[in-house]
Sequence to fold (596 residues):
Amino acid sequence: MAAANKGRRSSGSQGYPGRALAVILVALVALTGGIFISGQRTPRLGIDLAGGVSITLTAKPHQGNAVTKANMNTAVDIINRRVNGLGVSEAEVQTEGSDNIIVNIPKGTNADQAEQQVGTTARLDFRQVLAVQDGQPAKASPSSSPSGSPSPTPSKSATTAPGSSASPKAGSKATSTPTSSSSPQGRAVTDALKSAADKAPAKAPTPLPTGSPSAPTSPGATGATGDLSIPAALQQKFAALDCTNSIALGKARAANGPKDKVVTCGQEGGHWYKYVLGPTLIDGKRVSGANAAFDTQGGNGWVVNLTFDSKGAGQFTKVTGDLASQQQPNNQFAIDLDGDVVSAPRVSQALPGGSAQISGSFTQKSAQDLANVLKYGSLPVAFGVSDKTTVSPALGNEQLRGGMIAGAVGLALVVLYLLLYYRGLSFVAVLSLMVSAALTYTIMCLLGSAIGFALNLPAVCGAIVAIGITADSFIVFFERIRDGLREGRSLQPAVARGWPRARRTILVSDFVSFLAAAVLYVVSVGKVRGFAFTLGLTTVLDVAVVFLFTLPLMKILSRRPFYAQGHKWSGLNPESLGVKAPLRRVRRQHTETKEA
Fold:
């Protein structure tokens, strides 16, 4: 009696397969709704399918740092974080040989911006501004300057000291183009830990004498940060430098050393300014963090918050204290990225604690760009762009079409095999494959906007391989049901008894596949990760589909006469399976014969 009750409970516990089907249906509806809400109705494509840019960077020794494996690995990590910091999906950064780094940037949002920043990969320095002047040649013929004058009189903004500048990489823009009557809105550095009421208000840049650098030029001039004089040779370079001449600007930037006074340029509001900068005061490696934020309390709009490590905090406190005691523009420090002045905010007070806030004429984009440069700017070695290759979207479309054809052929062959061998049971398998495909597609679409997942060609291969893995789970389950029928059971008991056996096999098989995918994802680089990620995702979905769809659907169909009575097209025909009459029926017939 107890055994009978136990059997009834077991049967009753399996009497609600509709609940599991409802769960999978709700999940499909929710995921489908999610892709419409997010607007990402198709998976994001990688560089090999959508097109993009491949950049080869060649390393060279810089500032005493040799090109070593450790330095190359550090550079890969920094460049990868810089590109990913822009929100670029599936950007690949990996070494090739001993001195090359390959950067693959897929076509899409922020890809062009990332390409610009990847090409700017040398060191980040904080330097004192010694002089600043208009960096573009005068449109009208200037009058001749005295021999002792360090520079000609430019036609625009020659008498103004910009409070900041930004390179094309940083994307910083002023509210208006500088003119001779007004200067760009200056940027100021304040204590990020003080309240907005305690912060010193930004002061407008002080006009400087026309036709001369905005800094002391006498040989003995000194300041708290060191010698502020500009040697005659440097004055000549400063006077001759035209920031719009890319060849001359490249030569000037190449000569920059951390211990030297240098001449360089920066851009603000589409206008170039040239600078004389002092030696490096703080190495960019000392920056431990930077982020863009909107200042609602102080009314400064978009600002950039930066922090230094313990060593950099002490250096920053001393430097800002020294700069605050000096006049414009010597109270400015230039953020120098690979010889390009990204910004040159001024300091009005000492800033202890290793935290500061840069405010001024920032937009959201320019603030985020400057924060990115500060956070990911410094590299252990220098790099030059040795090769740049563009992958056309047409080639990507052709490869995607080939992958889709291969997947369709593989799916058709699997379905054909199921139809020929399992007949009516193939209905369950095909529906399960369709549910698995729908889940995979919707999740890939959502992951594109959520974590930047991009579908590349190896990922498509992983999805094709997953068709066989998923079909294998159905075959294991079907064969266990058939084994139950061969043992003389009817269909419902065969399903109930066959599921525990099939479940163990399916879980072990999927665990091995998932483990292989996880290990491959961890140890591999580049596009192979796409294959591993897709294989792991589809393996997890296979378990969900078998448990929540295939099993309950099979329980429902086992009650239908077409399957329960073993129709010849059901795939469960007793004759084709070689099923014998149940043993208990033989005993009953034998007993009746004796009584007769």
About this structure: Confidence is low (pLDDT under 50) at residues 1-14, 140-185, 195-220, 583-591. The chain has three domains: 15-45+392-586, 52-113, 122-138+148-376. The radius of gyration is 35 Å. The first helix runs from residue 2 to 13.
